Structures are given as structure tokens and as C-alpha cells.
Backbone:
């Protein structure tokens, strides 16, 4: 396990709309909650929770020509954290996907790779060198966050047992992530 003094946990998009019954449900998405509640208590220097936080006319929504059903509309119940997620260890909350005209899968940058959420500077300011990523969805926002964490120079792990993906087969994704230097933690 990491040296917690210099480590941050990033909990990606564990929000009602990504859980079974939600607007953009990830299969078995609710199964990440228990392992995340265990992880977040291990003593990380920072525990960051992200929230997908879209305007009602966001460009990623099907009615606007995008790929997804409407989801995680800012301040809606669907955008809220599930009540079973322990928020007590969470030190920072990052909202993303707030601009109407572009999406932000990553917790660090919008998909245009120009606009920062400020997370990079925040973690550097806390002297973080190592990041563990978990949450939803493994093949979209978790992967994008881990890739950007690597690009920003952090040692980066994905806690696989605390993630669920939209696609059934993640084999190609795993080899791609490994090739980029992301470490896949299988035991949590
Ligand atoms: C996500 C699709 C659209 C995610 C967010 O959290 O992985 N996926 N918005
Ligand atoms: Zn979204």
C-alpha cells in the first residue's frame, strides 16, 4: 500500500445516477460503495470525491446530440452522493462537466485538455506524489482520471475492486492502462 502521508484517494462519480435505478446506471455500480468506505478510512492525506455536475442542456445529453441520457444535473438528487457512501473522510469535492459545450470525464481536465479543474494544483500544494483512483465508471471517468494523474506526474494506482465499468470486457483497457504506467491493484 502507498505511503499515506503523500497519497490521495480520488473517488470518481459515486453518484445516484450511476447506481442501479439511476439515469445512467453502471452495472453493479452500488458494489463499489463498501470497498470505497473501507479504502477512505486508511489514512490518506487527502480524500477527493468528484461529482459529475451538468447543466440541464449539457452537450453530452442525447437530446443535445451527445452520447448519454441526461444525468447528474447539478444539484439534482441524481447528482447527489448515495447515502451509504461515507463522506466523513472526504476532504475535497470537485465538480466537473459544468460547462455546457464540453464534457469532463477526468477529475483533472475537461476533455479539451485545456481547462483544469484545479485538482492538479490542489494536490501539489498538499505535497501529494501518489494517487489511488476508484469509483465509476471504470472505462470512462476512472480511466480518464488515472491517465491524467499519470500525465501530471503522480504515481497512479486504480483500486479495481472499488470500480465498476459500463462495458463487460475490460481486457483491452487494462493492457492500455498498464502500458501507460498505471498500476492496477487487484486485491482491493
Ligand atoms: C461518466 C459518462 C458520462 C462517468 C460521466 O462518470 O464515467 N460517464 N458522464
Ligand atoms: Zn456526465
Residues:
Amino acid at each position: 500500500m502507498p505511503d499515506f502521508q503523500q497519497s490521495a484517494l480520488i473517488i470518481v462519480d459515486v453518484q445516484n445516477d450511476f447506481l442501479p435505478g439511476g439515469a445512467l446506471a453502471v452495472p453493479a455500480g452500488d458494489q463499489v460503495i463498501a470497498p470505497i468506505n473501507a479504502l477512505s478510512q486508511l489514512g490518506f492525506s487527502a480524500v477527493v470525491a468528484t461529482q459529475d455536475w451538468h447543466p440541464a442542456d449539457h452537450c453530452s445529453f442525447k437530446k443535445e446530440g451527445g452520447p448519454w441520457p441526461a444525468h447528474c444535473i447539478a444539484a439534482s438528487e441524481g447528482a447527489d452522493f448515495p447515502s451509504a457512501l461515507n463522506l466523513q473522510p472526504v476532504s475535497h469535492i470537485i465538480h466537473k462537466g459544468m460547462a455546457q459545450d464540453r464534457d469532463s470525464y477526468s477529475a483533472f481536465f475537461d476533455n479539451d485538455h485545456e481547462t483544469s479543474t484545479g485538482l492538479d494544483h490542489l494536490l501539489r500544494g498538499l505535497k501529494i506524489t501518489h494517487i489511488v483512483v476508484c469509483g465509476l465508471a471504470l472505462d470512462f471517468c476512472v480511466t480518464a482520471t488515472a491517465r491524467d494523474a499519470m500525465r501530471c506526474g503522480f504515481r497512479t494506482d486504480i483500486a479495481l475492486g472499488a470500480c465498476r465499468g459500463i462495458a463487460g470486457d475490460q481486457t483491452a483497457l487494462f493492457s492500455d492502462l498498464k502500458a501507460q504506467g498505471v498500476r492496477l491493484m487487484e486485491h482491493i
